[in-house]
Design a protein that fits this description.
Layout lengths: L1 E6 L4 H11 L3 E7 L13 E4 L4 H10 L4 E5 L7 H4 L3 H10 L7 H14 L3 E2 L15 E4 L5 H17 L7 E5 L2 E5 L5 H10 L8 E4 L7 H4 L2 E2 L1 H9 L4 E5 L4 E2 L2 H11 L2 E5 L7
Parallel strand pairs: 1-2, 1-4, 2-3, 4-5, 9-11, 10-12, 11-13
Antiparallel strand pairs: 6-13, 7-8, 7-9
Helix pairs in contact: 7-9, 9-10
Pfam families: LpxI_C, LpxI_N
Keywords: Hydrolase
Organism: Roseococcus pinisoli
Length: 276
C-alpha cells in the first residue's frame, strides 16, 4: 500500500513514518503547517499544507498514489476564522454538517467519512507500531499503587465514563478522591498543569487517561508520552493510569524510563474490571 501521513505536532508522527517504512510501506507525508515540522520529515517525500487546504491535500495524496491514510500528532482545532477553508474543505464541511461544531468524536467520525468518500482507507497509527499500547492490564513501571491511589483511579474511571456520552475529554486528574481537573479543549498537558496549581497537601494525585466509549480510535486514540510524564512530575502527581490496549505510549521506552526516574507509576487498567 502507499501510505499518506497527515502529520501534526510532536515526535509521534515521525515515529509512525519510520515504522511504516520499516514495514515496507511507501509513505508520503503531508505536514500540517503550524503543527508539524517539515524538517523532521526530510528523509521522506513530503509537502507542507495548511489545515484548511483540504483540496490541495487530497490532490497531493491522489497524485502520489496514496491508498491508505494515517493521522498522527497533535492538532489544535482552529476557529472558523483561522481555518480559512478552501472550496473543497467548505463543501466537505457542508456535507458533514453539525459534526463540525460538535465534540471531537463526532468531528473525527466526519473526517473519516469524508476521506473514505475520496477513496482512502484510514488506518490507525498503533497498527503500524509494535507495542505502542499496553496489551494487558498491569503495572508497567514504578511502585504498585496503594489503596488511596487505586481509589483515585477508580474515581477517575467513573468520572470519564459519565462524561463519555457528552463527548468531553479523555483525561482527568484525581487527588485523594477530589477531581482536580477534567480535560476539555485545552488538552492533557494543560489539564495537568492546571491540576498542579490546585494540588493539595498529602499523597499526590493520579492522571487517568481512557478512550471514550465510542471513540474513533483510528484517528483520535488517547496518547501519553515523555511530555506527559514531565508534566505529571511538575504537577506533583504520583501516577498515570492508562487504558490497556487503547491508550498509545507515543515513545514507550522513553516514557517508561522517564516515569521510573521521576518515581511515577504507570498502570494499564481495564476500566470495566478495575476495583479500588
Amino acid at each position: 500500500m502507499k501510505l499518506g501521513l497527515l502529520a501534526g505536532a510532536g515526535p509521534f508522527p515521525v515515529r509512525v513514518a519510520e515504522a511504516a517504512r520499516r514495514a515496507g510501506h511507501e509513505i508520503f507525508v503531508v505536514c500540517l503547517r503550524g503543527f508539524g515540522e517539515p524538517a523532521d520529515f526530510e528523509p521522506f517525500p513530503h509537502v507542507e499544507e495548511r489545515l484548511g487546504a483540504g483540496g490541495s491535500i487530497i490532490q497531493h495524496m491522489k497524485r502520489e498514489g496514496v491508498t491508505h491514510v494515517v493521522l498522527a500528532g497533535r492538532v489544535k482545532r482552529p476557529s472558523m476564522l483561522a481555518l480559512l477553508p478552501d472550496v473543497w474543505t467548505a463543501k466537505a464541511m457542508a456535507r458533514v454538517g453539525v459534526a463540525i461544531f460538535s465534540g471531537d468524536d463526532a468531528l473525527f467520525r466526519a473526517v473519516a467519512q469524508v476521506l473514505g468518500e475520496e477513496g482512502f482507507e484510514i488506518i490507525s497509527p498503533q497498527s503500524l507500531i509494535e507495542d505502542s499500547t499496553a496489551a494487558e492490564a498491569g503495572l508497567l513501571v514504578g511502585s504498585e499503587p496503594d489503596a488511596t491511589a487505586r481509589a483515585d483511579i477508580l474515581r477517575g474511571i467513573q468520572t470519564l465514563r459519565c462524561l463519555a456520552p457528552l463527548d468531553v475529554g479523555q483525561a482527568v486528574v484525581v487527588q485523594q478522591g477530589l477531581v482536580l481537573g477534567i480535560e476539555a479543549v485545552e488538552g492533557t498537558d494543560a489539564l495537568i498543569a492546571r491540576a498542579g496549581d490546585l494540588r493539595r497537601e498529602g499523597p499526590g494525585g493520579v492522571l487517568v487517561k481512557l478512550a471514550k466509549t465510542d471513540q474513533e480510535m483510528r484517528i483520535d486514540a488517547p496518547v501519553v508520552g515523555p511530555v506527559t510524564v514531565a508534566g505529571a512530575k511538575s504537577a506533583g502527581l504520583r501516577g498515570i493510569a492508562i487504558e490497556a490496549g487503547r491508550t498509545i505510549l507515543a515513545e514507550r521506552t522513553a516514557t517508561l524510563q522517564a516515569a521510573e526516574a521521576a518515581g511515577i507509576f504507570v498502570l494499564a487498567v481495564d476500566p470495566e474490571r478495575f476495583t479500588a
